[in-house]
Each structure stands twice: as C-alpha cells, then as structure tokens.
Amino acid sequence: MPQEQYTHHRSTMPSSEGPQVYKVGIYGWRKRCLYFFVLLLMILILVNLAMTIWILKVMNFTIDGMGNLRITDKGLKLEGDSEFLQPLYAKEIQSRPGNALYFKSARNVTVNILNDQTKVLTQLITGPKAVEAYGKKFEVKTVSGKLLFSADNNEVVVGAERLRVLGAEGTVFPKSIETPNVRADPFKELRLESPTRSLVMEAPKGVEINAEAGNMEATCRTELRLESKDGEIKLDAAKIQLPRLPHGSYTPTGTRQKVFEICVCANGRLFLSQAGTGSTCQINTSVCL
C-alpha cells in the first residue's frame, strides 16, 4: 500500500483514547518574569523621557541654540559670561555692537600667533606683574595710520610731534643721543646734566645754544672747554664779565688804580694785571706757572 494511503487510513481509524490538547504560550513563572521585565522597561522609558525633557528645560534648548549660545547666520552668539575649560579655536571673536569685550583670567592672558608649523611668531602675555610682548617689531599707530612708536632690534622710533618725560629725575641716556632739537616747555628751564661723567655735544655743522627769555649757565667741576678746530669762537654780547680771573701782583711804582688788562699765558691761561703806562703782563708771569 502506498505511504499516502497508509497515513490516511490511520487518520480515519477511530481512537479509543480521545483527542489530545496541546497548550500554546508562556505560563507559570516565565509569564510573571516577562511581565515584570516589560513593566521595568516601560518605567525606564518614562524616566528617560522625563530626564530628557528636564535637561532640555534646564539647558534652555531652543530652535536657535542652547542657553546663552545662539546659532545665527554669521556664526555663534554668546550672551552673558562664558567660561571655556578647554582651548577655544575661532577665526574671529567680537562683542556685540556698543559693548566692550572682556577677557578675564585668574593668572594671565596669553595671545600667540603661530605659523603653519605651529611655531610661535608673536606672543603677548598680560600677567599680574607685567605685560610682555615678544616679536620682531612693535608698532603703535594712530587711527589714520601715523606711526607713534616703533621698536625693533636696531632702533626705537618715536613718531609723535612731542615727547614728554614727566619723571622727577628727568631722562637718563647711558649712551649717546641724536636729535636736531632739545627744547624745554614754555616757562620751564632746560638742564643737560652729567653728575659723574663728562657732557659732550657734537655736530658736523655746529652746535647752537639759545636762551631767548632767560639766562644760560654752563657749570662743571674741573674744566670747561670751548674748542673750534677750523673756525673761531666768538663772544658777541654787550657786556662780557670774567669775575673770577686770578690777579697779578701790583707794581710797586704804579698807582693803585682799578684798571686792569687781560693777559694770556703761553698755556692759554688768562689773568688780570694792573694796568700801567705800558703792559704789565711780563711782570706777573708767575701766575702762568
């Protein structure tokens, strides 16, 4: 008999035991565990959703940004105080129109200019004790672009029309100074002083000292020398006084008159000698020693 007919024949045969029932599903402790895990998952989803909504509310998330941070067409906009715990990289940082831009730090603020190899070219450090700038050249200009101050390894240039030094001790130049004009403020005196060394003024075309509304004094401890190598020294004044010239001895035969003549020694020293009918300089040659 074929297999199909045999199977059909067995299925049509009456069974003395009755129909068998098979249970389909999860029952017992497995069913209770499944319901518990489903309930726990729903609770976690609700807690997560509630925490997400709370974070969005606290951080003030909106369509335009988060908190004080706003996203605009020109970039990011920060309102209020901002604190960055890590390095901030930006192409441009600017304040709102009409407001100032503040950088606050507990120690110092450092601004570095780097090249393509991340090597520092220019550095500005503002600290609690000093403001330091490192670079090849330092310039200060006006709004119109006029140079006011410049400094590099070779020279320091002051481009202002007037340089004012307000220190009580004046200005100290350890080395030489080159200037076409040294002038004091109106109604103020000008003093060029060297307390421990000599004071030398040189110019290829002459040195002019002019006091239009006052006196001019030149004081030194040892020697005051006026030297002209190729020209002459001219004293042009209505009155010339040499009050501290040494006096020669009076001639015994001459009258004690208050008329003197100026005598010059071979070494260039000047002295006074009482005038007589003739020159008395040869009598007082001891003054030249």
From TrEMBL:
Q: Which Pfam families match?
A: Sarcoglycan_1
Localization per Swiss-Prot or TrEMBL: Cell membrane, Sarcolemma; Cytoplasm, Cytoskeleton
Q: Name one GO cellular component term.
A: sarcoglycan complex
- GO terms classed as biological process: cardiac muscle tissue development; heart contraction
Keyword terms of this UniProt record: Cell membrane, Cytoplasm, Cytoskeleton, Disulfide bond, Glycoprotein, Membrane, Signal-anchor, Transmembrane, Transmembrane helix
Record's bilayer topology term: Single-pass type II membrane protein
Which ranges does the record mark as transmembrane?
33-56
Q: Which family does it belong to?
A: Belongs to the sarcoglycan beta/delta/gamma/zeta family.
* Name listed for the protein in its UniProt record: Delta-sarcoglycan
List the taxonomic lineage. Eukaryota, Metazoa, Chordata, Craniata, Vertebrata
